[in-house]
Amino acid sequence: MPTATRPPDQQEPPSDRAGRIETHGVDFIPAAERYGRPRSLFVVWAASNITYLYIVLGGTLVLLGLNAWQALGVVVAGNLCWLLIGYLSISGPASGSPSEVVTRAIFGVRGNRVFNVILGWGVGVAYEAINLSVGALAGFALVEQWGGSASAGVKWAVVLGTALVTFTVSVYGHATIVKLSGWFTWLLLASILVLGYYVLQHAAWGYQTPPQYALHGGALWAVAAAGFTIIASGPLSWGTGADYARYLPASTSPRAVTWWTTLGAFLPSVVLGGLGVLAGTVVNMANPQTSLKTLLPGWFYPVFLLVILVGSITNNVLTAYSSGLALQAMGIPWKRSVTVVFDAVIGVSICAYALFISNFLNTLNNILELTVAFLGPALAIYAVDIVLRRNRYDGLELHDETPGSRFWYWHGVRPAGAIAMIAGTAAALLCASNDLYVSPVAGALDGADLSAFVGPVVGACAYAAIVARERSRSAAARPVISPVVTGAAAE
Protein backbone atom coordinates (compact mmCIF):
# COMPACT_ATOMS: atom_id res chain seq x y z
CA MET A 1 0.00 0.00 0.00
CA PRO A 2 1.21 3.60 -0.57
CA THR A 3 1.32 4.36 3.14
CA ALA A 4 3.79 1.53 3.69
CA THR A 5 6.48 3.51 1.88
CA ARG A 6 6.00 6.58 4.03
CA PRO A 7 8.39 7.38 6.89
CA PRO A 8 6.88 6.37 10.27
CA ASP A 9 6.28 9.98 11.32
CA GLN A 10 4.06 10.53 8.26
CA GLN A 11 1.80 7.49 8.59
CA GLU A 12 -1.80 8.15 9.56
CA PRO A 13 -2.88 5.98 12.50
CA PRO A 14 -6.17 4.02 12.32
CA SER A 15 -7.74 6.56 14.69
CA ASP A 16 -7.12 9.47 12.29
CA ARG A 17 -7.20 8.64 8.60
CA ALA A 18 -8.48 10.79 5.75
CA GLY A 19 -11.89 9.59 4.62
CA ARG A 20 -12.66 7.94 7.96
CA ILE A 21 -14.31 9.53 10.98
CA GLU A 22 -11.65 10.50 13.52
CA THR A 23 -12.13 8.52 16.73
CA HIS A 24 -10.28 10.90 19.04
CA GLY A 25 -11.98 13.86 20.66
CA VAL A 26 -10.44 15.92 23.44
CA ASP A 27 -8.64 12.84 24.78
CA PHE A 28 -4.86 12.51 24.89
CA ILE A 29 -3.08 11.49 21.65
CA PRO A 30 -0.50 8.81 22.59
CA ALA A 31 2.98 8.90 21.10
CA ALA A 32 2.30 5.87 18.88
CA GLU A 33 -0.46 7.79 17.07
CA ARG A 34 1.50 10.99 16.46
CA TYR A 35 2.51 11.69 12.87
CA GLY A 36 3.04 14.36 10.26
CA ARG A 37 5.25 17.38 9.70
CA PRO A 38 4.66 20.97 10.85
CA ARG A 39 4.50 22.22 7.26
CA SER A 40 1.11 20.51 6.94
CA LEU A 41 -0.23 23.27 9.19
CA PHE A 42 0.34 25.82 6.43
CA VAL A 43 -2.46 24.57 4.17
CA VAL A 44 -4.80 23.97 7.10
CA TRP A 45 -4.61 27.61 8.12
CA ALA A 46 -4.35 29.00 4.59
CA ALA A 47 -7.50 27.20 3.40
CA SER A 48 -9.50 28.43 6.37
CA ASN A 49 -8.36 32.03 5.91
CA ILE A 50 -8.93 32.51 2.19
CA THR A 51 -12.24 34.05 3.10
CA TYR A 52 -14.37 36.94 1.88
CA LEU A 53 -14.54 38.38 5.41
CA TYR A 54 -11.04 39.84 5.10
CA ILE A 55 -11.96 41.68 1.89
CA VAL A 56 -14.91 43.20 3.74
CA LEU A 57 -12.74 44.23 6.70
CA GLY A 58 -10.13 45.81 4.42
CA GLY A 59 -12.80 47.83 2.64
CA THR A 60 -14.20 48.90 6.01
CA LEU A 61 -10.93 50.65 6.87
CA VAL A 62 -11.33 52.97 3.85
CA LEU A 63 -14.95 53.65 4.82
CA LEU A 64 -13.71 54.65 8.29
CA GLY A 65 -11.64 57.44 6.70
CA LEU A 66 -8.12 56.03 6.31
CA ASN A 67 -6.17 56.62 3.11
CA ALA A 68 -4.77 53.69 1.11
CA TRP A 69 -1.38 53.41 2.84
CA GLN A 70 -2.76 53.99 6.33
CA ALA A 71 -5.35 51.26 5.78
CA LEU A 72 -2.74 48.84 4.38
CA GLY A 73 -0.55 49.51 7.43
CA VAL A 74 -3.44 48.69 9.77
CA VAL A 75 -4.15 45.46 7.85
CA VAL A 76 -0.56 44.30 8.32
CA ALA A 77 -0.39 45.41 11.98
CA GLY A 78 -3.66 43.77 12.98
CA ASN A 79 -2.74 40.50 11.31
CA LEU A 80 0.56 40.32 13.19
CA CYS A 81 -1.62 38.87 15.96
CA TRP A 82 -1.35 35.60 14.01
CA LEU A 83 2.12 35.28 15.55
CA LEU A 84 0.42 34.81 18.90
CA ILE A 85 -1.84 32.10 17.46
CA GLY A 86 1.19 30.36 15.96
CA TYR A 87 2.96 30.46 19.31
CA LEU A 88 -0.03 29.04 21.19
CA SER A 89 -0.07 26.10 18.75
CA ILE A 90 3.17 24.71 20.20
CA SER A 91 1.23 23.47 23.23
CA GLY A 92 -0.44 20.87 20.97
CA PRO A 93 2.59 18.63 20.29
CA ALA A 94 3.85 19.18 23.85
CA SER A 95 0.62 18.01 25.49
CA GLY A 96 -0.98 15.80 22.85
CA SER A 97 -4.17 17.68 23.68
CA PRO A 98 -6.33 20.40 22.13
CA SER A 99 -6.31 23.99 23.38
CA GLU A 100 -9.66 23.42 25.09
CA VAL A 101 -7.92 21.00 27.46
CA VAL A 102 -4.54 22.74 27.79
CA THR A 103 -6.28 25.75 29.34
CA ARG A 104 -7.20 23.60 32.37
CA ALA A 105 -3.67 24.38 33.51
CA ILE A 106 -4.63 28.08 33.54
CA PHE A 107 -8.21 28.13 34.80
CA GLY A 108 -8.59 24.81 36.65
CA VAL A 109 -10.87 21.93 35.69
CA ARG A 110 -14.14 23.67 36.57
CA GLY A 111 -13.01 27.17 35.66
CA ASN A 112 -12.00 25.89 32.25
CA ARG A 113 -15.52 24.57 31.65
CA VAL A 114 -16.91 28.05 32.12
CA PHE A 115 -14.21 29.43 29.84
CA ASN A 116 -15.14 26.93 27.11
CA VAL A 117 -18.86 27.63 27.41
CA ILE A 118 -18.36 31.34 26.68
CA LEU A 119 -15.25 31.70 24.55
CA GLY A 120 -14.89 28.19 23.16
CA TRP A 121 -18.37 27.14 22.20
CA GLY A 122 -20.38 30.38 22.31
CA VAL A 123 -18.10 32.45 20.12
CA GLY A 124 -17.48 29.48 17.82
CA VAL A 125 -21.17 28.90 17.12
CA ALA A 126 -21.69 32.63 16.50
CA TYR A 127 -18.93 32.61 13.88
CA GLU A 128 -20.41 29.45 12.35
CA ALA A 129 -23.71 31.29 11.86
CA ILE A 130 -21.99 34.31 10.31
CA ASN A 131 -19.94 32.17 7.91
CA LEU A 132 -23.01 30.17 6.90
CA SER A 133 -24.91 33.40 6.28
CA VAL A 134 -22.11 34.92 4.18
CA GLY A 135 -21.77 31.73 2.14
CA ALA A 136 -25.52 31.43 1.69
CA LEU A 137 -25.85 35.03 0.46
CA ALA A 138 -23.17 34.34 -2.14
CA GLY A 139 -25.03 31.16 -3.07
CA PHE A 140 -28.29 33.09 -3.53
CA ALA A 141 -26.51 35.59 -5.81
CA LEU A 142 -24.89 32.73 -7.74
CA VAL A 143 -28.28 31.13 -8.42
CA GLU A 144 -29.63 34.44 -9.72
CA GLN A 145 -26.46 35.04 -11.76
CA TRP A 146 -27.06 31.75 -13.54
CA GLY A 147 -30.61 32.77 -14.38
CA GLY A 148 -32.43 31.02 -11.59
CA SER A 149 -34.86 32.34 -9.04
CA ALA A 150 -33.78 32.51 -5.40
CA SER A 151 -37.16 31.46 -4.01
CA ALA A 152 -37.57 30.47 -0.37
CA GLY A 153 -37.15 26.81 -1.32
CA VAL A 154 -33.96 27.49 -3.26
CA LYS A 155 -32.56 29.56 -0.40
CA TRP A 156 -33.22 26.76 2.07
CA ALA A 157 -31.51 24.33 -0.30
CA VAL A 158 -28.43 26.59 -0.49
CA VAL A 159 -28.25 26.99 3.30
CA LEU A 160 -28.67 23.29 4.01
CA GLY A 161 -26.33 22.26 1.19
CA THR A 162 -23.60 24.60 2.46
CA ALA A 163 -24.08 23.33 6.00
CA LEU A 164 -24.01 19.69 4.88
CA VAL A 165 -20.65 20.04 3.15
CA THR A 166 -19.18 22.08 6.01
CA PHE A 167 -20.18 19.89 8.91
CA THR A 168 -19.55 16.62 7.07
CA VAL A 169 -15.87 17.52 6.70
CA SER A 170 -15.77 18.57 10.37
CA VAL A 171 -17.36 15.27 11.43
CA TYR A 172 -14.69 13.30 9.55
CA GLY A 173 -12.12 15.30 11.46
CA HIS A 174 -8.43 16.11 11.53
CA ALA A 175 -6.87 13.92 8.80
CA THR A 176 -9.66 14.68 6.33
CA ILE A 177 -9.36 18.40 7.06
CA VAL A 178 -5.60 18.29 6.43
CA LYS A 179 -6.07 16.30 3.20
CA LEU A 180 -8.77 18.56 1.75
CA SER A 181 -7.06 21.77 2.90
CA GLY A 182 -4.31 21.28 0.33
CA TRP A 183 -6.82 21.13 -2.53
CA PHE A 184 -8.89 24.00 -1.18
CA THR A 185 -5.81 26.19 -0.67
CA TRP A 186 -4.49 25.96 -4.22
CA LEU A 187 -7.91 26.20 -5.90
CA LEU A 188 -8.90 29.24 -3.86
CA LEU A 189 -5.45 30.78 -4.29
CA ALA A 190 -5.72 30.56 -8.07
CA SER A 191 -9.05 32.37 -7.97
CA ILE A 192 -7.71 35.03 -5.60
CA LEU A 193 -4.79 35.72 -7.95
CA VAL A 194 -7.27 36.43 -10.75
CA LEU A 195 -9.31 38.65 -8.42
CA GLY A 196 -6.14 40.48 -7.42
CA TYR A 197 -5.21 41.06 -11.06
CA TYR A 198 -8.46 42.89 -11.79
CA VAL A 199 -8.50 44.84 -8.52
CA LEU A 200 -4.90 46.01 -9.03
CA GLN A 201 -5.74 47.21 -12.53
CA HIS A 202 -8.18 49.73 -11.06
CA ALA A 203 -6.59 50.46 -7.67
CA ALA A 204 -5.76 54.04 -6.75
CA TRP A 205 -2.57 53.63 -4.72
CA GLY A 206 -2.42 57.33 -3.96
CA TYR A 207 -6.00 57.48 -2.70
CA GLN A 208 -6.60 60.17 -0.09
CA THR A 209 -9.73 60.72 1.95
CA PRO A 210 -11.73 63.72 0.60
CA PRO A 211 -10.55 66.92 2.39
CA GLN A 212 -13.84 67.43 4.20
CA TYR A 213 -13.51 63.94 5.75
CA ALA A 214 -9.72 63.87 6.22
CA LEU A 215 -8.50 62.70 9.62
CA HIS A 216 -5.69 64.33 11.59
CA GLY A 217 -4.11 64.10 15.01
CA GLY A 218 -6.16 62.36 17.69
CA ALA A 219 -9.04 61.57 15.35
CA LEU A 220 -6.68 59.73 13.01
CA TRP A 221 -5.20 57.67 15.83
CA ALA A 222 -8.68 56.90 17.13
CA VAL A 223 -9.78 55.51 13.76
CA ALA A 224 -6.51 53.61 13.30
CA ALA A 225 -6.96 52.01 16.75
CA ALA A 226 -10.54 51.05 15.91
CA GLY A 227 -9.35 49.58 12.61
CA PHE A 228 -6.62 47.62 14.36
CA THR A 229 -9.20 46.10 16.73
CA ILE A 230 -11.45 45.15 13.80
CA ILE A 231 -8.58 43.43 11.94
CA ALA A 232 -7.16 41.83 15.11
CA SER A 233 -10.57 40.36 15.95
CA GLY A 234 -9.93 37.84 13.13
CA PRO A 235 -6.79 36.17 14.49
CA LEU A 236 -7.80 36.62 18.12
CA SER A 237 -10.87 34.44 17.52
CA TRP A 238 -8.55 31.49 16.72
CA GLY A 239 -6.98 30.57 20.04
CA THR A 240 -7.34 26.88 19.13
CA GLY A 241 -4.08 26.24 17.31
CA ALA A 242 -3.23 23.21 19.45
CA ASP A 243 -6.32 21.44 18.08
CA TYR A 244 -4.59 20.99 14.71
CA ALA A 245 -1.01 20.54 15.96
CA ARG A 246 -1.65 17.91 18.68
CA TYR A 247 -1.11 14.96 16.32
CA LEU A 248 2.45 16.06 15.59
CA PRO A 249 5.20 14.16 17.47
CA ALA A 250 6.21 15.69 20.81
CA SER A 251 9.73 16.24 19.42
CA THR A 252 8.43 18.56 16.67
CA SER A 253 10.23 21.91 16.53
CA PRO A 254 8.17 24.59 18.33
CA ARG A 255 9.66 27.19 16.00
CA ALA A 256 8.45 25.27 12.93
CA VAL A 257 4.95 24.90 14.39
CA THR A 258 4.82 28.62 15.15
CA TRP A 259 5.98 29.78 11.73
CA TRP A 260 4.00 27.37 9.54
CA THR A 261 0.81 28.20 11.46
CA THR A 262 1.51 31.94 11.36
CA LEU A 263 2.41 32.06 7.67
CA GLY A 264 -0.57 29.92 6.65
CA ALA A 265 -2.98 32.37 8.24
CA PHE A 266 -1.08 35.66 7.92
CA LEU A 267 -0.41 35.62 4.17
CA PRO A 268 -3.99 35.15 2.90
CA SER A 269 -5.36 37.47 5.59
CA VAL A 270 -3.03 40.30 4.56
CA VAL A 271 -3.47 39.73 0.82
CA LEU A 272 -7.28 39.65 1.01
CA GLY A 273 -7.42 42.55 3.46
CA GLY A 274 -5.13 44.51 1.14
CA LEU A 275 -7.35 43.77 -1.85
CA GLY A 276 -10.32 45.02 0.16
CA VAL A 277 -8.46 48.26 0.87
CA LEU A 278 -7.44 48.77 -2.76
CA ALA A 279 -10.92 48.00 -4.02
CA GLY A 280 -12.21 50.57 -1.55
CA THR A 281 -10.10 53.24 -3.24
CA VAL A 282 -12.24 53.03 -6.40
CA VAL A 283 -15.65 51.65 -5.36
CA ASN A 284 -17.92 52.03 -2.35
CA MET A 285 -17.29 48.99 -0.17
CA ALA A 286 -20.44 49.46 1.90
CA ASN A 287 -21.83 46.56 -0.16
CA PRO A 288 -18.65 44.86 -1.44
CA GLN A 289 -20.31 41.87 -3.08
CA THR A 290 -22.17 44.22 -5.43
CA SER A 291 -19.45 46.88 -5.70
CA LEU A 292 -16.71 44.45 -6.72
CA LYS A 293 -18.88 43.33 -9.62
CA THR A 294 -18.03 46.59 -11.40
CA LEU A 295 -14.30 45.74 -11.28
CA LEU A 296 -14.61 42.18 -12.57
CA PRO A 297 -15.29 40.80 -16.05
CA GLY A 298 -18.65 39.12 -16.47
CA TRP A 299 -17.19 35.63 -16.77
CA PHE A 300 -15.31 35.90 -13.47
CA TYR A 301 -18.08 37.27 -11.26
CA PRO A 302 -19.75 33.83 -10.81
CA VAL A 303 -16.33 32.41 -9.96
CA PHE A 304 -15.91 35.17 -7.36
CA LEU A 305 -19.26 34.25 -5.80
CA LEU A 306 -18.20 30.61 -5.74
CA VAL A 307 -14.95 31.59 -3.99
CA ILE A 308 -16.99 33.38 -1.31
CA LEU A 309 -19.13 30.29 -0.85
CA VAL A 310 -16.22 27.84 -0.68
CA GLY A 311 -14.20 30.18 1.55
CA SER A 312 -17.05 30.31 4.05
CA ILE A 313 -17.06 26.50 4.09
CA THR A 314 -13.30 26.13 4.64
CA ASN A 315 -13.36 28.71 7.44
CA ASN A 316 -16.32 27.03 9.10
CA VAL A 317 -14.80 23.55 8.92
CA LEU A 318 -12.14 24.50 11.50
CA THR A 319 -14.59 26.56 13.55
CA ALA A 320 -17.06 23.67 13.82
CA TYR A 321 -14.29 21.19 14.63
CA SER A 322 -13.01 23.30 17.52
CA SER A 323 -16.44 24.23 18.89
CA GLY A 324 -17.24 20.51 18.96
CA LEU A 325 -14.12 19.91 21.06
CA ALA A 326 -15.17 22.77 23.34
CA LEU A 327 -18.45 20.97 24.08
CA GLN A 328 -16.52 17.87 25.09
CA ALA A 329 -14.14 19.91 27.24
CA MET A 330 -17.18 21.34 29.05
CA GLY A 331 -17.85 17.82 30.32
CA ILE A 332 -20.58 16.80 27.88
CA PRO A 333 -20.09 13.02 27.37
CA TRP A 334 -20.73 12.91 23.62
CA LYS A 335 -18.47 11.69 20.83
CA ARG A 336 -16.73 14.45 18.89
CA SER A 337 -18.78 13.66 15.78
CA VAL A 338 -22.01 14.07 17.76
CA THR A 339 -20.94 17.44 19.17
CA VAL A 340 -20.25 18.68 15.62
CA VAL A 341 -23.74 17.60 14.51
CA PHE A 342 -25.23 19.40 17.52
CA ASP A 343 -23.30 22.53 16.58
CA ALA A 344 -24.60 22.20 13.04
CA VAL A 345 -28.20 22.29 14.24
CA ILE A 346 -27.57 25.39 16.37
CA GLY A 347 -25.52 27.16 13.69
CA VAL A 348 -28.06 26.51 10.92
CA SER A 349 -30.89 27.68 13.18
CA ILE A 350 -29.16 31.00 13.92
CA CYS A 351 -28.26 31.42 10.24
CA ALA A 352 -31.84 30.76 9.15
CA TYR A 353 -33.18 33.26 11.69
CA ALA A 354 -30.72 35.86 10.43
CA LEU A 355 -31.54 35.34 6.76
CA PHE A 356 -35.26 34.62 6.78
CA ILE A 357 -36.72 36.28 9.87
CA SER A 358 -34.65 39.10 11.31
CA ASN A 359 -31.60 40.68 9.71
CA PHE A 360 -29.50 41.02 12.85
CA LEU A 361 -26.08 40.16 11.38
CA ASN A 362 -24.77 43.72 11.92
CA THR A 363 -25.65 43.51 15.60
CA LEU A 364 -24.04 40.08 15.83
CA ASN A 365 -20.86 41.41 14.23
CA ASN A 366 -20.74 44.25 16.76
CA ILE A 367 -21.11 41.77 19.59
CA LEU A 368 -18.25 39.70 18.16
CA GLU A 369 -16.07 42.81 18.01
CA LEU A 370 -16.63 43.12 21.75
CA THR A 371 -15.35 39.56 22.20
CA VAL A 372 -11.86 41.00 21.63
CA ALA A 373 -12.19 42.27 25.20
CA PHE A 374 -12.39 38.64 26.36
CA LEU A 375 -10.31 36.84 23.74
CA GLY A 376 -7.33 39.19 23.86
CA PRO A 377 -6.63 38.73 27.60
CA ALA A 378 -7.37 34.99 27.40
CA LEU A 379 -4.82 34.37 24.65
CA ALA A 380 -2.21 36.59 26.28
CA ILE A 381 -2.60 34.65 29.55
CA TYR A 382 -2.33 31.38 27.61
CA ALA A 383 0.94 32.59 26.03
CA VAL A 384 2.38 33.61 29.41
CA ASP A 385 1.51 30.18 30.83
CA ILE A 386 3.43 28.50 28.01
CA VAL A 387 6.44 30.70 28.77
CA LEU A 388 6.29 30.09 32.52
CA ARG A 389 5.96 26.32 32.09
CA ARG A 390 8.52 26.28 29.27
CA ASN A 391 5.83 24.53 27.23
CA ARG A 392 5.93 21.48 29.49
CA TYR A 393 2.43 20.03 29.78
CA ASP A 394 1.70 16.51 30.99
CA GLY A 395 -1.10 15.43 28.66
CA LEU A 396 -2.28 12.59 30.89
CA GLU A 397 -2.48 14.81 33.97
CA LEU A 398 -4.45 17.42 32.05
CA HIS A 399 -7.14 14.81 31.46
CA ASP A 400 -7.57 14.01 35.16
CA GLU A 401 -10.77 15.85 36.13
CA THR A 402 -11.09 14.45 39.68
CA PRO A 403 -10.66 16.58 42.85
CA GLY A 404 -7.27 14.93 43.25
CA SER A 405 -6.07 16.35 39.94
CA ARG A 406 -2.99 18.52 39.83
CA PHE A 407 -5.15 21.04 37.97
CA TRP A 408 -8.06 21.05 40.42
CA TYR A 409 -6.56 23.96 42.36
CA TRP A 410 -9.17 25.66 44.62
CA HIS A 411 -12.58 24.00 44.25
CA GLY A 412 -11.77 23.31 40.62
CA VAL A 413 -10.76 26.90 39.83
CA ARG A 414 -7.29 28.38 39.59
CA PRO A 415 -7.42 31.84 41.23
CA ALA A 416 -4.46 33.14 39.20
CA GLY A 417 -6.19 32.47 35.89
CA ALA A 418 -9.59 33.70 37.03
CA ILE A 419 -8.29 36.93 38.56
CA ALA A 420 -6.04 37.72 35.58
CA MET A 421 -8.90 37.05 33.18
CA ILE A 422 -11.27 39.33 35.09
CA ALA A 423 -8.63 42.07 35.33
CA GLY A 424 -7.73 41.89 31.63
CA THR A 425 -11.34 41.83 30.49
CA ALA A 426 -12.32 44.72 32.77
CA ALA A 427 -9.40 46.79 31.49
CA ALA A 428 -10.34 45.99 27.87
CA LEU A 429 -14.00 46.90 28.38
CA LEU A 430 -12.96 50.22 29.92
CA CYS A 431 -11.19 50.99 26.62
CA ALA A 432 -13.60 49.45 24.08
CA SER A 433 -15.67 51.30 21.48
CA ASN A 434 -18.09 50.22 18.75
CA ASP A 435 -21.65 50.87 17.58
CA LEU A 436 -23.12 49.10 20.61
CA TYR A 437 -20.89 50.41 23.36
CA VAL A 438 -18.48 53.30 23.94
CA SER A 439 -16.37 52.96 27.09
CA PRO A 440 -15.41 55.86 29.36
CA VAL A 441 -11.78 55.79 28.25
CA ALA A 442 -12.69 55.57 24.55
CA GLY A 443 -15.10 58.47 24.97
CA ALA A 444 -12.34 60.59 26.46
CA LEU A 445 -10.02 59.68 23.56
CA ASP A 446 -12.38 60.66 20.72
CA GLY A 447 -13.64 57.08 20.36
CA ALA A 448 -10.24 55.38 20.15
CA ASP A 449 -10.67 51.65 20.86
CA LEU A 450 -7.61 50.50 22.82
CA SER A 451 -9.16 47.24 24.06
CA ALA A 452 -6.99 45.08 21.78
CA PHE A 453 -3.85 46.63 23.35
CA VAL A 454 -4.80 47.18 27.00
CA GLY A 455 -6.70 43.95 27.73
CA PRO A 456 -3.92 41.52 26.75
CA VAL A 457 -1.21 43.55 28.52
CA VAL A 458 -3.16 43.81 31.79
CA GLY A 459 -4.22 40.14 31.68
CA ALA A 460 -0.70 38.88 30.93
CA CYS A 461 0.97 41.05 33.57
CA ALA A 462 -1.62 40.15 36.21
CA TYR A 463 -1.21 36.43 35.54
CA ALA A 464 2.59 36.58 35.58
CA ALA A 465 2.56 38.57 38.84
CA ILE A 466 0.11 36.26 40.62
CA VAL A 467 1.93 33.10 39.52
CA ALA A 468 5.24 34.59 40.68
CA ARG A 469 3.67 35.30 44.06
CA GLU A 470 2.26 31.75 44.24
CA ARG A 471 5.68 30.29 43.54
CA SER A 472 7.32 32.54 46.09
CA ARG A 473 4.88 31.45 48.79
CA SER A 474 5.27 27.82 47.82
CA ALA A 475 9.05 28.06 48.06
CA ALA A 476 8.81 29.79 51.45
CA ALA A 477 6.50 27.09 52.78
CA ARG A 478 8.89 24.25 51.92
CA PRO A 479 10.83 22.94 54.94
CA VAL A 480 14.53 23.79 54.96
CA ILE A 481 16.61 20.61 55.05
CA SER A 482 19.85 21.22 56.95
CA PRO A 483 22.92 19.24 55.94
CA VAL A 484 23.97 16.41 58.28
CA VAL A 485 26.77 17.64 60.46
CA THR A 486 29.48 15.08 61.16
CA GLY A 487 31.36 14.88 64.39
CA ALA A 488 34.55 16.12 62.80
CA ALA A 489 32.77 19.03 61.27
CA ALA A 490 31.11 19.84 64.58
CA GLU A 491 34.46 20.08 66.21
Explain how this protein is built:
- Helix content is 67%, strand content 0%.
- It has helices spanning 40-49, 52-63, 68-79, 82-88, 91-95, 99-102, 104-107, 109-145, 152-172, 174-202, 217-236, 242-245, 254-280, 288-291, 301-329, 336-357, 361-370, 372-389, 395-398, 415-429, 440-444, 451-477, 487-490.
- It starts with 39 loop residues before the first helix and ends with a helix.
Layout of helices and strands, plus pairs?
Elements: H1 40-49, H2 52-63, H3 68-79, H4 82-88, H5 91-95, H6 99-102, H7 104-107, H8 109-145, H9 152-172, H10 174-202, H11 217-236, H12 242-245, H13 254-280, H14 288-291, H15 301-329, H16 336-357, H17 361-370, H18 372-389, H19 395-398, H20 415-429, H21 440-444, H22 451-477, H23 487-490
Q: What is the compact description of this entry?
A:
The chain has helices spanning 40-49, 52-63, 68-79, 82-88, 91-95, 99-102, 104-107, 109-145, 152-172, 174-202, 217-236, 242-245, 254-280, 288-291, 301-329, 336-357, 361-370, 372-389, 395-398, 415-429, 440-444, 451-477, 487-490. The protein is mostly helical and 491 residues long.
Question: Tags for this entry?
Answer:
globular; 491 residues; Hydantoin permease; disordered N terminus; mainly alpha
Average pLDDT metric: 89
Order of helices and strands: HHHHHHHHHHHHHHHHHHHHHHH
Structural class: mainly alpha
Total helices: the number is 23
Tally of extended strands? 0
- Rg for CA atoms: 24 Å
Biggest beta sheet summary: none
Stretches with pLDDT under 50, minimum 5 residues: 1-6, 485-491
- The CATH superfamily of one domain turns out to be Hydantoin permease
CATH class of one domain: Mainly Alpha
